[in-house]
Amino acid sequence: MASSANNDRPNHRTARAFCLTSAFWFAAAASFGMIGAGYLIAPDFMANIGWLHFGKARPMHVNLMLFGFVTPGLLAAAFYYVPKLLRTALYSEKLGVFTAILWNITLPIGVVGLAQGRSQGREYAEWPWSVDMLIVVLFALVIFNLVMTVRRRLEPIIYVSIWYVCAAVILTGTTYCIGNVIWKPSTGALLGIPDAILLWFYGHNVFGLLLTPLGLGVAYYVLPLATRSPLYSHTLSLIGFWSLIVVYTHIGTHHLLQVPVPTWLKTIAIVDSVAMVIPVMVFLINIWYTVQGKLGTIHADIGAKFVFTGTIYYFFVNIQGSMMALPQVQRVTHFNNWVVGHAHIGVLGFAGVVAIGGIYYVLPKITGRPLYSRFLADLQYWLLLIGVTGFAVVLTIVGLIQGNAWLNGETVYRVLPEIHLYYILRASLGVFIISGAYIGLYNIFRTLYFNPGAATACE
Prior knowledge:
The protein is mostly helical. The chain has helices spanning 13-41, 54-86, 93-115, 129-151, 160-179, 192-227, 234-248, 263-275, 277-290, 295-300, 302-324, 327-333, 337-367, 374-407, 412-449. Helix 4 runs antiparallel to helix 5 (160-179) and helix 11 packs antiparallel against helix 13 (337-367).
């Protein structure tokens, strides 16, 4: 199975496959998101289409964003830079391509299952059991391919990006099994409070132990190279890595402060949520000092521009998240659109934007040609910047309206007329995001397969 390391130009078929996978499912996930936004404006919107009502469109949107768009996009970059940094070939391109094919078989099975009502009814863990098992297999294949590549490396020093990507896939392979309760195929859940604790252990770690380390790995690779700057501090990069692993693991229970979870567990979740400032600021100080004075260079490189913007979103999502874990703040911000806005900043603003940046940075290197259209890539950047930032502002305002109204004793239905206009604004901003998704799909597809650009010595 293993491919021998040689001086021939690698074909990067695995990275290519994951680039296209990410672009396609971003468009699909954004489409389901727009359908959900339509229901919030007009609840009878497509009411006669039973397999596509809000309760099904929403988990389709969320799970395709997580496992269809962001994760494959970040892995696409990783399948390029891991062999590059280790000065060896990917252990098996055939295995990598097979993984991508199985990935694109698994996701439609999951969507059809959700459309048929075969949901486990647990947030971020709605996939049917059969899909859960396929996802576990997918992570096992990715882990094997990457770990075997590390084992065969010619470079003795393991750069921090390798640490992050390996930790992400190994830890997620474990937490996915635990959080989705795969040993109970009939329900995919435990009973009562233990299930809630287990669910949010997984629900928060799918961001903190999968998307976050994969995103930081891309940033640590792309930004120093794009700016031709040495990493500011290798020591800080390792401090940031270990503090993220230690601190993030325990914060999921801050979603359960209003329920009878043991007080000691709530306390740990709150303390560690606030302590997340440490790994985040260590990373940001390290990466921003690396690129200081090089904003012009970043602006000139579309991949680096996406990635750097993602680090800014990372700053805001952390400050917001640490604050939201405080009980007095959570009385106003929880169970409403504030949390929805926070999730969009994290998954789409940070991890999603970094994933697109990683794809755009490695595409010329894996194809040997420039991007099909720098203009379309820039257009996608601005569409997403406006859409995601607008989402954050609008949903934060809506959340504060809802939270303060409920705190003052208002019922849910009396608040709905006040926020209807904001839902219209939300859907309007969604047009920017879905347009960016389809433009990106077209640009990436043309770059991979129908690109008239002259071959360049990118490798």
